[in-house]
Amino acid sequence: MIRPKEMTMVRIITPSRHVRNVIETLYELKVLHILDFKKGEDEFFDIGKPFKEATTYSEQLIALRSIISRLSITGTPKDLKNLSDAQKRLLELNKSFKDTVEKLDKTKSVENELLNDYKNPLANLGISHKIKEFKSLVSFLGTVKSPIESKLNAITTDYSLTQKKLEKRIAFALFIKRELGEKVKAILSESGFAEHQLPKLNRTEIEERLAKIRKEKIALENQLETLKKNNSQFLVDYEFALTQLNEQSEVPLRFASSKNTLIATGWIPADKAENIKQNLAKITKEKVFVELLHGKNPPTVLENPKMINPFEFLLNLYSLPKYYEIDPTILMFIAFPLFFGFMLGDVGYGLTTLAIIFLLEKKLPTAIKPLLRIITISSLSSIAFGFIFGEFFGYEFIAHPLLNRVHEINTMMLISVAVGVVHINLGLVLGLINELKHHNFLEAFLRKGSWIVLQVAVAILGFGYLQANQSFQMIGGILILASILMIIKGEGILKIVELPAILSNTLSYIRLYAIGLASVSLASVFNKMASGFFVQGGFSIAIGIFVLLAGHFINLLLGLLGPFLHSLRLHYVEFFQKFYEGGGYRYSPFGIIKMLGGR
Amino acid sequence: MAVDIGTGLLGLGAGLALAGGAIGAGIAEQQIGAAAVGAMAEKEELFGKGLILTVIPETLVIFGMVVAILIIGMAGP
Fold it and tell me: pLDDT tens, position by position, for chain B (77 residues)?
């Protein structure tokens, strides 16, 4: 619980003729986290060869997945009985699918072309596109911003101009003597000329063709839709089956092999070792050799009871612990809801959150289930704190609560800092334990314990000043110097820069109080506003109710977001920095697959 | 409610302390936030880390608030 699950490295040596059995067994057991053998790692071994079916499987998978992603199919896979039938069905399906998609793409590109023609400003000038070039005449086709007729009349009257006013511009076709071409160009560029080609069809023709091609498109889309409807379950099932087969047939690529043997190396949970040994021995009639080794850097499996499990989600958000590290999930399970409750601390808000979660739980995706569990636990804690502070939607429903957040400012701040001191020192102690894995006690103490000594020293010094007691001041000063020297010795001279950090880290816990205070003040402000309306009576009562609902809704949102983030932050920044490294990698055993359509 | 000028100045000072902390935190978070969103666009898993880095300067506001409360404490009950 406090440490990741114990792992052991295993090396499985198999004669070639048993390879298939061994791989199938390993696949079913789903325990081996394979360590890939890399080419050139050893002079006597090469990577293994995939089974000969691997090519057919992967070819089929490519076809299958392109259909699945194009039709965006999803579903839960079931077992598929007859694989050779499935292969035939896929071949036929793929052919008709490709056919339809090709036709559909063609219609789409034709439609686009037609639409472009349709938008052409010269479409309705009534000039045939067959007009090309003349010996003595030059043609200008396109649009201008301002009319050009008067400007043309200034140079000649001998031209032919067809024009049509559009929304902002004027479409025109101008034919004029070739020798005037340069002058006309100048006029046109003044008027904001944009050249266009003549469309091949006129509008009515385009509209007719568009209607036809759209009908074709819809028919083809319907075809695809039917194809999807009739085959989606089959496609999902077959993808599932094929992915499994494919993974098995390609896995030798990750193993080392010689002419007659195959060597698989990987990590397994230590308690599964015997089980694997027996299973493999049985299936190969004692022809396989399983060896347990001491390897470095095992993968991490967090192992926590179901209750605590959801908090692994918060840990994953940060980084998975290394195998040798302490797994802080259980500490988060204890501290996170306490922090959250201390900040939100209101019976009404806690109950509302619980109700919302209860209503929404079924509708939200499974991926955020852990988050919901965390919020549920935190809401319970905030109800409990609500009774301590005597608050219900910001209203003080207990006359003399255990603690009054609004008035007992100093007590609340002291409690917050005290929580900080405990939490940070807990972190330092955990850090010390972590360091003991790599260093002897003296070194570990210099690295982490020195910080605890520093805090004690500052406390003694402060006490000395408060009591005006010189000997306490002396002891405190000496201890501070000693602890700084220890820190330099243990963590290096650069850490001096971080000396004030321990103070700011501790003070940072005052947020536990500050955020709660903000939340309760806001709530009571809304209550006061609403009661002002209620006193007036009549229609104002409706406004008062609206103010109450809207105000508390906003405050609840803030009150969930703020305490959540800040509770998380206190863990990540202040707590984890004292001991947590992270950077472990996830244990992902052979046999657990990811799918495109499935799930 | 009439207060003497000394109390008024104390109140002003408390407000300034909190405002300074908040503005400082805002300036710091603006740059971190922009960078964090950029990083998240590249790699979505960085959401957790981005969020944490973004809220780090929020401590400044807390310090501002502590100072403000201390100043208000000077004004007496």
Answer: 677 888 889 989 999 999 999 999 999 999 999 999 999 898 877 777 787 788 888 888 888 988 888 888 887 65
Contact check, Cβ <8 Å, B66/A510: yes
Architecture of domain A137-198: 2-Layer Sandwich (3.30)
Q: What distance lies between CA A167 and its chain's CA centroid? A: 48
Residue of A nearest to B64 (CA): A514
Best mutation target among A503, A508, A575 (most B Cβ atoms within 10 Å) is: A508
DSSP-based three-state secondary structure for A537:
coil
Tell me the shortest Cα–Cα distance from B15 to chain A, in angstroms.
Answer: 15
Instruction: Name the residue facing B51 among A413, A504, A565 (closest C-beta).
Output: A565
Query: Domain-by-domain residue ranges, chain B?
Result: 25-72
Mean pLDDT of A556-577: 89
The pLDDT value recorded for residue A140 is 84
* B46, burial (CB in 10 Å: exposed 0-12, middle 13-18, buried 19+): middle
As a whole number of angstroms, the distance between CA A345 and CA B63 comes to 22
Angle of the A450-467 helix axis to the A499-508 helix axis, nearest 10: 70
Domain ranges, ordered by start, for chain A: 137-198, 304-404+512-581, 408-509
For an interface test with A, the pick among B40, B54, B65, B70 (most A C-beta atoms closer than 10 Å) comes out as B65
**pLDDT above 90 coverage of chain A, percent:** 18
